[in-house]
Write a structure and sequence with these properties.
With about 250 residues, the chain is α/β, with parallel strands linked by helices. It is about 40% helix and about 10% strand. It has 2 domains: about 70 residues, no CATH class; about 130 residues, no CATH class.
Length: about 250
């Protein structure tokens, strides 16, 4: 494995890479030392050949390997912030009649790459799926679903352990985990469950229905919380009637 790829893996997993500042006694000679061991070079901000922010020591070695012409004008990636793109375009001469298309395609406020934070717990019960947006409520929803289905069907069915979908998937600033990516992953998760023969969905939680609407899943019944469902007779009646209309439970 290349050293830069290894450092990227460690950084994505949140593992701090420690580098010695000087040769240590009774230890193998280090391949790299800290940045101050190379004072003759300024630390580059970005390496055009890779397109990502490298480890400072890797940047030092790559900086030595780059030609002098490459070091003068760093290449700006298309995914760079708007300020960097604007600076790179204005610094280079533009032919008459030509417009910097890269800047015009960027939105005025910049793309929102902040990952949404939510979680959904899927509980398979019979031919249906009960979904809640709270890890604390997952066990209670599981027990409640078992009691409801036992009362309707006159017997008890096995309810599998909840399947958790949590976003962002990993805590990393180098991965695109924006809203479109999150919805694509959630839709893929739902398609995997739907292929197992789910006939209806019961949604519990204030935010559950909103995320299901984004992936075009219409629940048979939705309650803002399990406490509201268990304490209000009208909500219990709505759930009971909705389940009785299902041909297969």
């Amino acid at each position: 494995m290349r050293e830069q790829q290894r450092l990227d893996y460690l950084q994505a997993m949140g593992i701090t890479q420690w580098i010695p500042r000087q040769p240590l006694p009774f230890a193998p000679a280090p391949r790299w030392l800290a940045e101050d061991a190379h004072p003759r070079h300024a630390a580059p901000h970005q390496v055009a050949a890779t397109g990502h922010m490298p480890h400072p020591l890797a940047a030092e070695l790559l900086h030595d390997a780059l030609p002098a012409a490459t070091q003068k004008v760093p290449t700006v990636q298309a995914a760079a912030p708007r300020a960097l793109v604007q600076e790179a375009v204005t610094a280079q001469p533009v032919a008459s009649g030509a417009a910097p298309a890269l800047v015009s395609e960027l939105p005025a406020g910049g793309a929102d790459l902040a990952p949404p934070r939510f979680e959904l717990h899927f509980l398979r019960a019979g031919s249906g799926c009960w979904i809640t947006d709270s890890a604390d409520e997952a066990a209670r929803v599981q027990a409640f679903a078992w009691r409801v289905l036992s009362a309707i069907k006159g017997g008890s069915d096995f309810i599998a352990a909840p399947v958790c979908f949590r976003w962002p998937f990993i805590e990393s600033a180098h991965e695109d985990q924006s809203l479109p990516v999150a919805l694509h992953a959630l839709r893929t998760q739902w398609q995997f469950l739907a292929e197992q023969g789910i006939a209806y969905v019961i949604a519990v939680g204030a935010g559950t229905s909103g995320w299901l609407d984004r992936i075009d899943v219409r629940p048979l019944y939705h309650s803002t919380s399990l406490d509201a469902l268990m304490s209000q007779a009208t909500e219990k009646r709505k759930l009971w009637l909705a389940l009785h209309q299902q041909a297969e439970l």
